[in-house]
Design a protein that fits this description.
By secondary structure, this protein is an alpha/beta fold. It has helices at residues 20-27, 34-44, 49-52, 62-70, 89-105, 115-121, 127-143, 160-172, 176-183, 191-201, 203-211, 226-235, 276-284, 294-300, 308-317, 321-332, 338-363; strands at residues 8-10, 13-15, 30-31, 56-60, 76-81, 109-113, 151-155, 217-222, 245-249. It has a seven-stranded mixed beta sheet with strand order 3-4-9-8-5-6-7, sandwiched between helices. The protein has a two-stranded antiparallel ribbon with strand order 1-2. Helix 7 (127-143) packs across helix 17 (338-363) and helix 15 (308-317) crosses helix 17. 42% of the residues are buried. The chain binds tryptophan. Residues 11, 78-82, 112, 114, 117, 200, 219, 221, 225 line the site of tryptophan.
């Protein structure tokens, strides 16, 4: 992928080199400032590494949600997944963050599995496939330690009766011209896809429907999902609901050059069910910020900013800030070479995945406990 290609970020496509400051301006979101982090810290104690290291970098109304929270008003969390294939490590990153928020703020989480969305959007997927992936992907979510007591998974196709009235209320208030402007729909776009945003809006309000408690939802998600929330926020007050708030994260890169980790390039992403030998092979072939030869690397040092291996340490696999800083320093000074980092990362990822796979197996008996309709 060439880096001078024009940046395109939509819910269906991420292309070119992503300029996150520009996205904040284009989308009209707010940066997560030091001051906001300070406020959060007061509530939660230690900030999660994904906040400290600015993986989550932008928001809408996070400050408002905190204002309300400080006055004793609760909120709920909402996030989701388009089940078009197996889950990879990149998908886990915002889910891990969501778990952290849930633990700190003691909130309910509503998690939407969009087997309907993936069916209407992906040319070659059949309904049986997307529903099967929805169930399969739920195992990964549950393996992260979520509990049925406060976690509700919505399987869209199964649960459509629960969603449909709110979806209609939403759909009635969004014109085609708005949807076209926000999502870029064409005459050739199938009408399932055009209606779809109404369904993704529903979980923002589902807590109010189920409990009568009209509290805002806070949505941790990658920034490409923001267009959905823009239209949902516009119509929320018309339906008598609170506007949903968001925290946006960056894309976790794949192991290849540029772009986000994408299941359509399986060599460059680590799936949660990969075996140790597959993990090793993928990491070994990863794109790094190293020099072509060891001799040059020793002499000139590497470039962690360009390195996919480094990003994995940054966002997931090196929790300790000092050790992370050491890693950077040693790389830049040519004290370490790429093989060293690859070996460490392979070990950490393998260890993490073996644990995860065990929990995933156990989750197989538990999925029903998480059904929103139980
Ligand atoms: N549209 C998302 C996807 O394709 C799935 C999704 C539905 C979602 N609701 C969400 C993602 C809320 C984040 C937050 O992956």
């Amino acid at each position: 992928m060439s880096n001078d290609e024009e940046m395109v970020v939509t819910p269906w496509e991420v292309r070119g080199e992503v300029d996150y400051d520009k996205l904040i301006r284009q989308f009209g979101t707010q940066p997560i400032t030091d001051q906001l982090l300070k406020r959060l810290k007061k509530q939660v104690g230690k900030l999660h590494l994904q906040l400290r290291r600015r993986l989550f970098f932008s928001h809408r109304d996070l400050d408002t949600v905190l204002d309300l929270y400080e006055k004793g008003k609760r909120f709920v969390l909402y996030t989701g997944r388009g089940p078009s294939g197996p889950v990879h490590v990149g998908h886990l990153v915002p889910w891990i963050f969501t778990k952290y928020l849930q633990d700190k703020f003691k909130t309910n989480l509503y998690f939407q599995m969009t087997d309907d969305e993936k069916f209407v959007i992906e040319q070659d997927l059949r309904i049986e496939e997307t529903t099967k992936y929805a169930y399969d992907n739920a195992l990964d979510l549950i393996a992260l330690g979520f509990q049925p007591r406060n976690t509700y998974i919505i399987f869209d196709i199964k649960d459509i009766a629960l969603l449909y009235d709110i979806a209609l209320e939403v759909a009635k208030r969004i014109t085609f011209s708005t949807a076209k402007a926000v999502f870029g729909f064409q005459d050739s776009t199938n009408i399932g896809w055009i209606f779809w945003p109404a369904i993704q809006a529903v979980p923002c309000f589902i807590h109010a429907k189920l409990t009568g408690e009209n509290v805002p939802s806070l949505i941790p998600a990658a920034i490409d999902q923001d267009p959905y929330w823009r239209i949902t926020r516009d119509i929320a007050p018309k339906l008598g609901y609170q506007k949903p708030a968001q925290v946006h994260c960056r894309f976790v890169p794949g192991l290849g050059k540029g772009g986000k980790m994408s299941a359509s390039e399986p060599e460059t992403c680590i799936f949660t069910v990969d075996s140790p030998s597959t993990v090793k092979k993928k990491i070994w072939n990863a794109f790094t910020g190293g020099k072509p030869t060891v001799e040059e690397q020793r002499r000139l040092g590497g470039e962690p900013e360009l390195c996919t291996i480094y990003q994995y340490f940054l966002y997931l696999f090196e929790q300790n800030d000092e050790k992370l800083a050491d890693l950077v320093r040693q790389c830049k000074a040519g004290e370490t070479v790429c093989g060293d980092c690859k070996a460490i990362l392979t070990e950490r990822v393998t260890k993490f995945l073996l644990e995860h796979q065990k929990k995933r197996e156990k989750a197989k008996d538990k999925v029903e406990e998480f059904y929103i309709m139980r």
